[in-house]
Design goal:
- There is one protein chain.
- This protein has 359 residues and is mainly beta.
- Helices cover 4% and strands 47% of the residues.
- The strands form 7 sheets. A 4-stranded antiparallel beta sheet has the order 3-2-1-28.
């Protein structure tokens, strides 16, 4: 679930989390944990506390490790886990405050390489999001750049400039779309940079609503963006950038976060009550092919804490919703396509991304 200004503020003020976690059936991690078929959960941790972690939940055993990365590498993952993708035989993890890309073997969890992300002046450039295509991983850097990482040499080949404080990104039609938030700038941004991957150059910026966040693409080449507005007078929006024309259309669906699998977008949303607690938590389904809302809410389970991330398994179509209170270990809900609860397990602090593993 990518990090807004509100979340960042909360992370700067909360306490650190305990290290050990448990799930439905077992309650302690093992140094002999083997990766088979299951999910990795990147736990963001508390900003500036160096306590990001990697939960592994095994489908066959219903076992959730406390921190697989620590278990396999005898060291912590680092500070502020931001994004994670699987590409080929490796998993790439963007560590924002540590300013590095951690590369691990997807079948063992063992570190392959830690890649420092520095700018030309040698200072930290803070990776925010990751995408991959054609043997490359593209790293969006919060200092206003995107770097191209070769997946064989694991070296940064090129870096180009985009907008102010870029965050989420997605690839479709051999183009990389990058949401420019302007989060640390004097004026928040309201653009999406479009990068031609063949030439690795920015070709244009598309004007959208203020402070764009989560960005995903459907199988038809359309790009969807959830923006946050200014948290005051300008509300957030759910918008579609049409393939080919780049025409931007507002979609009348409330959204905090979402994922797209097949023809459906699964949209997580909630409101804040008078005490700033998350209320009215929903998962809506939007048909991207026919461009219409299918259901305003498919979930009847009482969801505790605040929704923090949502990812959908491309194979089973099960929906994973991670929640947090910003202080204690988080929790992961697994729902079927119909919204029925299948299982839950405990994660680390602030679960922010799920990656699905098959052996």
């Amino acid at each position: 679930m990518k990090t807004t200004k509100i979340i960042t503020t909360l992370l700067l003020t909360v306490l650190s989390t305990p290290i050990f976690i448990s799930c439905n059936s077992k309650d302690e991690a093992s140094s002999t944990t083997e990766v088979s078929t299951g999910v990795f959960v990147l736990n963001q941790g508390k900003y500036n506390s160096n306590n990001a972690s990697l939960t592994y939940y095994d489908f066959a055993t219903s076992f959730a490790s406390a921190d697989l990365f620590l278990d396999k590498n005898n060291r912590g993952l680092g500070d502020t886990g931001q994004d994670m993708i699987k590409y080929g035989s490796k998993i790439y993890i963007a560590m924002y405050k540590s300013s590095l890309i951690e590369v691990i073997n997807a079948q063992t969890g063992v570190s392959v390489k830690s890649i420092p992300m520095k700018n030309g002046a040698g200072t930290s450039s803070s990776p925010r999001s990751l995408t991959s295509a054609n043997g490359k991983v593209y790293v969006v850097l919060y200092d206003g750049h995107v770097s191209q990482l070769d997946t064989v040499s694991l070296a940064v080949e090129k870096t180009i400039a985009v907008g102010a404080n870029p965050d989420a990104s997605v690839i479709t039609n051999n183009k990389l779309y990058v949401a420019n938030t302007g989060g640390m700038a004097a004026v928040m941004d309201s653009t999406v940079s479009v990068i031609n991957l063949s030439t690795f150059t920015e070709t244009k910026k598309i004007k959208i609503n203020l402070n764009p966040g989560t960005i995903k693409a459907d199988s038809y080449g359309d790009v969807y963006v959830a923006s946050k507005g200014d948290y005051n007078l300008i509300p957030g929006k759910f918008q579609r950038i049409a393939a080919g024309t780049d025409v931007v259309t507002d979609i009348a669906v409330a959204v905090k976060n979402f994922d797209i699998i097949g023809d459906n977008a699964y949209i997580s949303n909630f409101d804040y009550d008078a005490t700033w607690q998350a209320a009215h938590k929903t998962i809506a389904v939007y048909d991207v092919k026919n461009e219409k809302l299918v259901s305003a809410n498919i979930v009847t389970t009482d969801i505790i804490k605040t929704p923090y991330c949502i990812n959908v398994d491309p194979t089973t179509k099960n929906i994973y919703l991670g929640v947090s209170d910003y202080v204690n270990n988080g929790k992961m809900y697994c729902f079927g396509q119909d919204g029925a609860l299948k299982f839950t397990f405990t994660t680390g602090l602030n679960p922010t991304k799920v990656v699905f593993i098959t052996k």
